[in-house]
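Before a colleague's protein record goes any further, I have to sign it off. Alongside the sequence sits a line of tokens, each denoting a local backbone shape. I want your independent view on whether this chain really folds as the tokens say. Where you disagree with what is written, explain briefly why. This is what I was given:
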Amino acid sequence: MDTKKHYKLYKDGKKWCVMTLAVVASVIGLATTANADETTDTMTSPVQTTQVAESSAADSVAAQSAFTDENAASQAVDTTVVSEAPATSTVSATAQPVQMAAPVAANVAAVQPKSSEIKNGWVNENNTWTYYTDNQVKSGRDYTYLPTINGEGKSWYLVDNGVVQSGVQKWAGSYYNFDANNNYQRIENNYAKSQWGSYYLSGSDGRIQSGVQQWAGSYYYFDPSTYLRVDNDYRQSQWGSWYLFGNDGRIQTGVQKWAGSYYYFDPNTYLRVDNDYRQSQWGDWYLFGNDGRILSGLQQWAGNYYYFDPSTFKKVINQDVTVNGTKYHLDNNGVAKVVSNVDAKVDKALSQRGVPYVWGGNTPAGFDCSGLVQWAYGLGSSYRTTYQQATLGAHKRDVMNAPKGSLLFFGSDSAPYHVAISLGDGTYVHAPEPGDVVKIGYSRYFTPSFYINM
């Protein structure tokens, strides 16, 4: 009996203990909620209240389990009592947060950082312009027509993995120049410096040009291999003509020196002049040959002869000159006239004094007697020998009075064996014999047989 009573009292006491714990937990939860209201955002307080209420309920269940007896019926009663006792406070504490859950989620989304904007077009990244299409860059190199970086129309660009390129660049077998100072646009119809300092000319389609090209009123030559401007050089153009380019690359005109010779380049066409008689940029007249080189000495042009100084190449006027033994007078226009045909021939022969005797010789390398006459008088091959030359005129015997330029013969009329050229004063010039040289002879020592006038 006492045992049952004691057990009943124990059970009643146990119930009150559990209820007391539940009430205390509820009060603590409310106090915590109130404190959170004062110190935190009102939209986050329900979350904290929910956590405390759930923790209190868990503590109540744990306390109930600790004092519950092993009897199954008693455990059922205890569970019911515990779930009923704190129901008012715990349920009311947990009901509100469920209703507030949606606003909390909305508030959390609102404070999240915004996602990055999608990249399209030109984007400046670390001072480098990159072209994007829907956040993507095209891989590899591409020469493409795009909106300009400054937003003014479109232009051609070269991009490498989306990154814009500048300076001289190769594309599809050609070279282009892209201007970093002008939004990296393709350079057209312009003469511009490259990234390494050399100058190049870009055409209307942007391609770098070669050969002879016009720029700013002048012409330049750009090497077909390097595309570099050529300075101080004599070059053949893409159409085959030859031109000369100066220190600054500009094409030259007038008389110009190249490789030890002089040429003339037409001021209008810039072409090298061949076989022509031209007035230079400083007023003097010059003659140019088949290969364009300037000529000197006695030269024929348009039916007349002129003489050009071998040192200055200038046309000589108002002077007498002797060329190959022939004396010429050059008038005010430089036209050459033979002063005396005989004198010229004699002078020509005299100019060869000291040249050795050579059998059969008829050049300044060596002469025999008839060879010297043939060369000085310009005779053809029909008058090569002494007896042939003796047929050029009537035979005269007063040999001591033979005039200057007449031919003196030694031997018979039909078979003379030697010939000389009279100097008109009893002397003559001749090529005597093997082992000797061309020199002066005297009629009183070696008297001719007859003479003829030439």
